[in-house]
Every structure is written in C-alpha cells, then in structure tokens.
Amino acid sequence: MSGCRTLESMLRRFGQLAVLLALAGVQVPVAALAAVMLLVSFALGMVFLFPPQVRMVRRLAQLHRRLVGRWTGMAIEPPYLPAPPPPVPQADGMYRSDRTLYKTPRVPAWSERWRWMLTDPATWRDEAWLVLDPLVKVALVPLFLVMPERGMRVYALWADLLLGATAASRLAGQVTHLRRTRTLAADSQAAEMRRIERDLHDGTQARLVAIGMTLGAVEQLVDTDPNAAKALLAKARDASSETLTELRRVIRGIHPPVLAERGLSDAVRALAIDSPLQVTVDVDMPHRPDPPVEAAVYFAVSELLSNAARHGDARTATVDVSANGGALRVTVTDDGLGGADPSKGSGLAGIERRLAAFDGVLALHSPPGGPTTVTMELPRVLPEYWAGEPDLPRWKSALVIALWATAWCPTFPQGLVAGVIKVAGYDGDPSWFLALRLPEPLQWPTILGMTALGVIMHVMAVRIPASHNRDHWVGRLFPGPIC
Amino acid sequence: MNRVLVAEDLYLLRDGLVHLLQAHGFAVVGAVESGPELLKGLLELRPDVSIVDVRLPPTFTDEGLQAALAARKQVPGLPVLVLSQHVEQLYARELLADGSGGIGYLLKDRVFNADQFVDAVRRVAAGGTAMDPEVIAKLLASNARNEPLAALTPRERDVLEAMAEGRSNAAISQRLFLSESAVAKHTASIFAKLGLAPSEDDNRRVLAVLAYLNNR
After folding, report:
1. Is A253 on the interface with B (CB under 8 A)?
2. Taking residues A57-84, what's their average pLDDT?
3. Which pLDDT tens digit goes with each residue over A79-137?
4. Chains A, B: CB contacts under 8 A, how many?
5. At the topology level of CATH, where does A263-378 sit?
6. Whole-angstrom Cα distance, residue A466 to residue A417?
7. Nearest chain A Cα distance for residue B212, angstroms
8. For the CA atoms of chain B, what is the radius of gyration?
C-alpha cells in the first residue's frame, strides 16, 4: 500500500518535472526576447518597451512561485516593492512629473511606474533568474530522476533564493500596511470626533440654551406672576435632567464610565448583565492592556452582543477574553441562527476598522443555522514584554553563575599570564601554572587551549542570557505583522 | 433625627447636599471628599445613613463604591445611598449582593427633586431600598426574554417597577392612583406569577423582587 503511494507520489513528481522542463522550453525564447527588448529599450532609447518586458518576466516568475508553492508547500512571497500610488493633481489641476507639468495623469503615472520597475532590485533578480533557471532545471534532472522529493525541494530552495522576498521588500510592504492602517485609524478618529461634536452641538448645547432662556423668563416673571415663574422653573429643572441624560449617552459613546472605573474585565461583565441574552463571561488576563485597546475591545464586544440580540435570535452567548502571550484574544459566541454576512451590515466593518489600528484581525464563522463565532485577535497589545518576561530556567542561571565564577581561571592565570611568563623567560617557581610544569612540547598547546577554553566560557556566559529572550526583544523591535 | 455622612468631592455639590439634608431635619455628622476618609468615617461614626459619590479621589475610579462595600462587609446592613453620574447594573448587583437592605443607588440628578430624594434617604436609613428608575428600566430590559415577566399585565408591570425601586404599598398606591388594597392584590398576583413566596414585610419583598430580576 505504502509502496503504491510512493510510486504515485514519484509519478506526480515526474509530472511536475515535465511541467518545469516544458516551462524551461518557454523560458529560453522568452529570455532571448527579453534580452532583445532590454537592449532595444536602453541602447536605442525605446524605453516604452521596458515595462512590457518587466511585466512579461514577472508573470513567468509569478507562475513559478505559484507552482513551487503548490507543489512543495513552501510559499514564496513576491518580492516586488508596492506599486506607486496614482498621481495626485496639484492645486491648479496639473500633474507634475519632475519639472514638467501635464494636463492628464497618463504620462506622470507611466513615468512613475517606469521608475518603480527600474529601481526595484526584484526586477533585476527576476532577469537573472530567467537566464539561470533553465540551466538549473536541466542540471537538476539527474537528481529528480533518482530522488524526486529531494530534487523538488532543492528546486524550491533555488527558486526562493532569487524569487523570494528580501528584507527590503518586506519592509516596504510593512510600511505600506502601516500607512494604510494609520490612515484608517486617523479617519475613524476624525469621524468619531465629528459625531461627538454633532451630538454636543445638536443636543446638549441646544438644551442648555433653552434652559438659559427659560431662566431668563423666570427672572422677568418672578415678581409679577410667581406661579408662572414656578411652573417655568420646574420646566427648567426637567430640561436640565434631560440634558444630563443626553450627556450621559454621549459620554458612554466616548469612553464608557464603567471602563474607566473598573477596566475591561468588569466592563465586559457589565455589558453581559445589560444584555437581554444569557451571557457567560470568562476573562483571563494577567495585565490590563492600554486604555485605547480596552476601549476598542469593549466597543467590539458591545456591538457583537447587541448584534446577537437583534438579528441572530440568540438566547445565550459567551464572551471569552484571554491573553495569548502578548496577544489579546476575544471570542464571542452566540447560539443564534447564524448566517451573518460582514458585507451586509456595517457593524462588523466598523469593528474591523477599530481593530486595524492595533493590527488586530477579526474572523467570523457563522454557518446558516448557527452558532456564530467571532474571534478577534490583537497581537502584541498586552504589556507582556515589560512586565512578565519569562525568567531564565534555574539550571541555566546556575550555569551562567558557574561560568562567570570559573572562566577567569583558564583565561588569566592558566592561559594569558602563563603565556606572558613563558615569553618573558621567567624561570622562578612555576608551581602556580599548570602549563609550565608540563614537559616543554606540551606547554604552548596547553597555554593556547586554556586561553581558548576561558574565552569560550566568557562568551557563553554572555550569550546564554542574551539569546534566551531573543524572540521577545525581536518582537519589541518589530511590532506588527511582517507582510 | 437621622445622622448623615456625606461623601462628595465637588465642593458645590457637597455643600448643596449638606444644606438640603439639614433643611429636611437631618444631622450631618461629616462631609468628606475622598475614599479613605469615607471608609474611616463610615466605620468610626456609624452614621444612620450616608450619601456616597461613586467616583472619589484619589483614584477617581469607583473609590466611593469600594469604600461603601468594604464598610458594609464589616458592618452588615450599614445604610448607604450611592449617587453616581451614571448607573450600572453591575454596581447595583454588587450593592445588593449581601441581601441585607439599607441600600440606595440613584443618579445624581435625582437630587433635583428634593422631596423624592429626601424620601429615598429616609427609606435607606430605615433599612429599605432606593433603586434608580433607570436601574430598574435596565434590569427589566435585560429581562426582556423572561417568560413569567412577559405574562404580567401592564398594570402589574407598573407596580413591579415601583416596587423594585423600593417603594412601600402606600407609596405605590399614591403614585399609581390606586387604592392600597388594589396594590396589595397586584403584588400578590405578581408574586404568584413569578413564583416567589409572598411576604408582608416591604423591605424583604423588594429584595426578593430584585434578587429575582438579577438571577434570571
């Protein structure tokens, strides 16, 4: 049975090899064409041929990335820098490219793209790959025939070498991602501010004006018609009550008081109590996240619970907030009808926007008939890095102490000092120095060995604690997903 | 004459409360402005009733509520009326959790209506309950899918609301323009529908209703 499977997978690999070789047959003419186009576009100044040439090569490279990814499971990320944004007109409606102004965005857009392709190192890596790849494929054929699995693996490594992402392209991708989330966060904050301004302007402010006017009327009436003044005062009092009610609503939308007073876990419990559903809350968080994170999670849970109560016909729900290393994971499940569609309601999109500011993601699982599960994960928002770094295990600490306590002995007296004494030709009592008591031919090897041993012990004593928390400080240096 | 302790950090409001209470015949034995002072005052002065703001210095979180809860842990049933700019069912539950009565939880703007406010203070001092209508409204809203509650008639629901706020039969009859016997009849019917054991004592009755609503 297993032999059958091996044979099957071997045959599959041979099929893939055939595809690769067929592609090599395509690559050779394409490489020739690409060389001609490149030559013509730069040597003869026909620069308009360069972009189609690059696009052609990229398409072929992308096909290889996809095939290798599918066949070996080794995902090769495209290394290209993000495409330039479309040109933005100036105040006078003209488009600028260097020192020239254009009426339409066509030429500036074209030259931007041209520069983008020309300056992207990935373009030239692709060209190099195109030339070398057919040779590599042919060279790998014997290996493929003997060990198809290994052959495919080697080919994947080769493809990743020239087609994979580089640190620079990853960084560029990350910058684009950050710019996008920053814009989203700034936009949603501005929208929030506008909403608050409108609420205060149309509600609270207008009511306070009305109260002021009522009080003015009372002032005029108080001598002539005390009864009417009294009635107006009662009215003013009611109006101030209503103003307070409204202000409370606005404040709840800005930052819920219970969140300020109690923090996330109790605020979520308060939400659960206020919900008409039977909500079970489970919060397991060693530290409180930052207030903006707490607010984002609070509003997300609030929205999800009210969604469940409104649309899903649910009776019970569970909210689970837990820390997963430095990440905060929130799961909201309800037993409603399911079939929630994020593209229909704006609630889920709003939550996603809110979470995006913290690189948070939302996953919705809502099959028709239920249950609906929403999982939100906010990476690296918990103060784990500066509050609870995992300590060195005891044996490692003991080893480090022992190294520090003993490393001096081989380095200095038995190593360096003995060497100095030997060079200086001192011939006193050598009893302290092991090397000097040994027969002559063994003396230098011993001195050098001792010095090397001491240095190695020092290096280990420094390295063990430093490398222990590597993941943590790397996480601190590069927050956010690498994409 | 009831001895009152006032805890409020805003001078104007504290002063206003003291004057209001004095004008209605209370003896104000202390007016404090922070959580630690409040706890000390509650335990040392043992006031007949205290008016406590939830948010107090030094943390400006729920310092006042925590002090009140801590004091009631040591002196069960110590009457406390908690005032706040916002009401939370969570806090109401915490205050009611020990089941010993003598608890009030009102929005600050209820002070505007002096008579009703003083009535609430007296009720709490006497070991009764004074829950803000807004708390009760939220409580009923979160019980929206409770079937026995849905079976109540609109009139019975009104009576239930007033009862949950902590009012006696006499006060309910005044507010709803019913005879006291009619209120008693409604009450009996409510208790039967909710499956609660009937009780003659007003305070016990209120606590039973609140416990029922909180334990849906």
Report:
1. no
2. 89
3. 888 888 888 888 888 888 778 888 888 888 888 888 888 888 889 999 999 999 999 99
4. 52
5. Heat Shock Protein 90 (3.30.565)
6. 29
7. 14
8. 17
A180 and B CB contact within 8 Å? no
- B62 → closest Cβ in A240, A262, A274: A262
Q: What does chain B come to in residues?
A: 216
**Total number of residues shown for chain A:** 483
Asked if residue A319 lies in contact with residue A330, where contact means CB atoms within 8 angstroms, the answer is yes
Asked if the C-beta of B138 comes within 8 angstroms of chain A's C-beta atoms, the answer is yes
- Integer Cα distance of B62 and B38 in angstroms: 13
Q: Quick check: A69 and A159 in contact, CB under 8 A?
A: no
**DSSP state string for A229-259:** HHHHHHHHHHHHHHHHHHHHHHHHHHS-HHH
Contacts of B85 in chain A (CB under 8 A): 244, 248, 257
CATH fit for domain B143-214, picks 3.90.190.10, 3.80.10.10, 1.20.1070.10, 1.10.10.10: 1.10.10.10
Give me the mean pLDDT over the A399-418 stretch: 87
Strand arrangement of the beta sheet that strand A316-324 belongs to: A278-284, A316-324, A327-334, A372-378, A361-365
3-state helix, strand, coil in chain A (%, to 5): 70, 10, 25
Q: Which fold has domain B3-132?
A: Rossmann fold (3.40.50)
CB pair distance less than 8 Å for A258 and B88 = yes
Rg (CA), chain A: 35
**pLDDT for A479:** 46
More confident of the two residues A286 and B129:
B129
Boundaries of every domain in chain B: 3-132, 143-214
Q: Does pLDDT of A26 surpass 80?
A: yes
- Closest residue in A to B112 (Cα) is A237
Q: How large is the ipTM?
A: 0.90
For residue B89, list chain A residues with Cβ-Cβ distance below 8 A.
270, 273-274
Question: Is the CB of A269 inside 8 Å of chain B's CB atoms?
Answer: yes
User: How far apart (Å, rounded) are the C-alpha atoms in residues B108 and B96?
Assistant: 19
Q: Phi, psi (5° rounding) for residue A203?
A: -100, -80
**Choosing among B142, B146, B149, which should be mutated to test the A contact, i.e. which has the most A CBs within 10 A?**
B142
pLDDT of residue A349: 84
